[in-house]
Amino acid sequence: MARLRPVWVWVIFIYFVVSSAWGVLTRALIVLGVYPLPAEELAILQNQPIGGVLFGLGIMALNLAAAIWLWLLRRRAFDLFVAALALSVASVIWQLMMGGPLATLLTRGTLVLAIGMFGLIVGWGITVAICLYTWSLRQSGVLR
Q1: pTM to 2 decimal places
Q2: Whose CA is closest to 71, among 25, 12, 23?
Q3: Which residues, including other chains, have CB under 8 Å from residue 82's CB and lie 6 or more apart?
Q4: Which of 7, 14, 21, 86 is least surrounded, with the fewest CB atoms within 10 Å of its CB?
Q5: Is the pLDDT of residue 27 over 90?
């Protein structure tokens, strides 16, 4: 018998599918020169180590995998979302400590710093909420 997916499972799944596709498409358009960026921003992206780019894509893929597992109503979705959150936090800390592109961006002034930090906190807050929601689905037996 088919199990019904809660509405929030659909919302989370669609969000990660769309945002992952948009992230990859945007990056590809920038690399191909189709989407023009100011020279300063383009230099920041071009100077990013390939390892950092691959790590970011890996986190994106992990989030997408977690969303797919959630859509499939599998228990492992919670573990994948938590792993993606932990890697995201570690990535930001590493970038800030090592002077990566995020650190460069955040030195652009108080407003950019405030907006950047607000974005990080809101993004992490949403991810924590998704983790808590996934945990509650797991505990209630919706995820198997």
Answers
A1: 0.86
A2: 12
A3: 131
A4: 7
A5: no
